[in-house]
Design goal:
The protein has one domain (3-212, 267-291): Alpha-Beta Barrel (TIM Barrel), CATH 3.20.20. Helices cover 39% and strands 17% of the residues. It is of the alpha/beta class and 322 residues long. The structure holds NADP nicotinamide-adenine-dinucleotide phosphate. Residues 19-24, 53, 81, 118-119, 151, 153, 176, 204-208, 212, 254, 271-276, 279, 282-283 line the site of NADP nicotinamide-adenine-dinucleotide phosphate.
Length: 322
């Protein structure tokens, strides 16, 4: 594993972070059981993963609690989250703080390394910064949490406006943002500003649904061509991104997807979600592999640099909170 500093937090984190959400939820979302999920987390840790990202709404904090009971607490960095809003209802600070304490209880620990407001929308941002952030700072002062971060609701905010505002305020230690092979929006402004402000950046949506299935990728390409957003020719072939797979280049579309995101300046940790032990080692190897060839990256920028919001979808196996 390669380790890096997570922005201003001073936390030393592996660049490949295990996402315990998404549709897989460590396998629990796709028919797996608790023992399999615990085993997957153990394997990830054995491979050098030390950044574990969960959330109150994922139902995987209990899995982490079981693993935490077996290992020194400071051998891993725990990130969990709680929503700032549910539908149009803004969640009061007391409820968010109660959620934090519930996470501590479920995971059996006395301090959370990184507590993030989950899927904050443009409309709930004022509430997040004005009401929730001060309450979380009090929790930090009490020692219940070490750092405070914010994550976006990517499917609802293609321009990433909320995170732009979060960077203006400069009170969040870490942000989680969407970025992938066909969605480069964060590269232009958010990531350079995150570097300048020393805000840690966690990448989500590197693979998600679009790049994890050749059928979905083909269908997605056809839709983009139908909408006039990409050349029809690109959507015609069987493997629209296969130009990335060659000697000296990527081994697969998924390999390309993780390597592209990993090497975007400003990205500290690439989150990958899986419930499949066979995917675990391969994903970590991809995240640790060298950048894609410069010519391939130029081609990706030329073909897809203008797109926004591609590859962002809600998980299919639990109700989104936004
Ligand atoms: N707003 C937020 O705060 C937010 C939003 C989204 C995500 N997240 C976090 O970010 C993490 C990562 O999210 P993500 O969007 O990048 O991905 P994800 O939702 O976790 O999904 C990755 C998908 O790709 C599949 N996959 C992974 N490796 C594969 C491989 N080698 N071959 C084939 N399929 C593969 C997984 O299925 P298998 O189980 O079959 O591998 C899964 O369906 C989440 O787990 C969560 O922790 C946070």
């Amino acid at each position: 594993m390669d380790y890096t500093n997570l922005g201003r937090t001073g936390l030393r984190v592996g660049v490949a972070g295990l996402g315990c959400g998404g549709s897989s939820r460590l396998g629990l979302g796709v028919g797996g059981d608790m023992a399999g999920a615990v085993d997957l987390v153990r394997r990830a840790i054995d491979l050098g993963v030390n950044f574990l990202d969960t959330a109150n709404s994922y139902g995987t904090e209990e899995v982490l609690g079981r693993v935490l009971a077996e290992i020194p607490r400071d051998s891993v960095v725990i990130s969990t989250k709680f929503s700032a809003h549910k539908g149009k209802r803004l969640i009061p600070a007391a409820e968010v703080v109660a959620g934090l304490h519930e996470s501590l209880r479920i995971m059996g620990c006395d301090c959370i390394d990184l507590f993030q407001l989950h899927g904050v929308s443009i409309n709930s941002y004022d509430h997040a910064v004005g009401e929730l952030w001060p309450a979380l700072m009090l929790e930090r002062d009490k020692g219940n949490v070490r750092h405070i971060g914010i994550t976006e609701t990517a499917p609802m905010d293609h321009e990433q406006v909320m995170l732009g505002r979060a960077l203006d305020d400069d009170c969040w230690d870490v942000m989680m943002l969407a970025i992938n092979l066909m969605n480069h929006n964060a590269c232009a402004d958010l990531l350079p500003r995150a570097v300048e402000n020393n805000v840690g950046a966690l990448a989500m949506f590197a693979v998600r649904s679009l790049f994890s299935s050749p059928d979905r990728l083909r269908a997605g390409m056809v839709k983009l061509a139908d909408d006039g957003k990409i050349d029809r020719e690109l959507a015609m072939g069987d493997g629209p991104l296969d130009f990335l797979i060659h000697e000296g280049g990527a081994q697969s579309v998924i390999d390309a997807a993780y390597r592209f995101v990993r090497h975007q300046p400003g990205i500290d940790v690439v989150l990958f979600g899986t419930g499949n032990p066979d995917h675990l080692a391969g994903n970590i190897a991809s995240i640790l592999a060298p950048p894609l060839p410069a010519e391939d990256v130029r081609k990706l920028r030329g073909l897809f640099g203008h797109l926004k919001g591609v590859g962002l979808d809600f998980p299919t196996t639990y109700a989104p909170t936004v």
